[in-house]
Prior knowledge:
Blueprint: E1 3-16, E2 19-32, E3 36-40, H1 47-54, E4 62-67, E5 70-73, H2 79-88, E6 89-92, H3 104-114, H4 120-133, H5 149-162, E7 167-171, H6 179-194, E8 199-202, H7 206-212, E9 215-220, E10 223-228, H8 230-235, H9 240-248, H10 265-268
Parallel strand pairs: 3-8, 3-9, 6-7, 7-8
Antiparallel strand pairs: 1-2, 1-4, 4-5, 9-10
Helix pairs in contact: 3-4, 3-5, 4-5, 5-6
Amino acid sequence: MxxxxxxxGIKRGFHTGGGMFxxxxxxDLSVEEGKLTILKxxxxxxxTTLLRAVNFLEPADKGIITVGDLxxxxxxxxxxxxxxxxxATAMVFQHCNLFVNRTAIENVMESLIxxxxxxxxxxxxxxxxxxxxxxxxxxxxxxxxxxxxxxQQRVAIARALAINPQVLLFDEPTSSLDPELVGEVLSVMKxxxxxxxxxxxxxxxxxxxxxxxxxxxxxxxxxIIEEGSPMEFFENPxxxxxxxxxxxxxxRLVRPQRIDDNLAxxxxx
Length: 269
């Protein structure tokens, strides 16, 4: 499959009391079109920083980000470059970030009307289609405070899908959910993956990674240490750091039954 996303030589530093802390240290990442790539690693390894750099929510200090035909030098990015990256990618956050004063369907419609200047009727029809895709068609007129955490996250996924991005980014989409709600979100994500939508996902859900991912990447200390298919990654780690990480996550490595049945192994342990 052709490459749809490339991050090359990505560096991101933060000033601290002790000097500069480099969260990303010249990292290179390639994501194939239509594939689900999962980023794994300990807290602080740079996973979320990388996602935010791709979407230019947290611009990298150095490096090149390419999405489709758009190539952006992070040191010289123009406003048009940044807007182009944000049109080509869409982020689903750990916390849903829905507008509390808008209904589910109004939340999905917002960017279509405001950013894409779409007519209200067209935006409504598109939003309804994507809410149906995430199984929220019966809740379209509910406000966020009337929805469960899992339902709110599904609205957020519909909102991201509606803008038709080339790459869909997920930053720990289930980590703030109650365990019994995790499975419904993972099930929706699995459905999306089967449709050939390119996804780059940061998640601690090991069972989901084993069952659904096409490619798994292990990050440590701001760099990619190892990557491969789920079988290679989980069954035959080459790097000692990955082996230690997997050993520390043994309680999450139970093979799930079926995510389709909303039985996420990580959620029911």
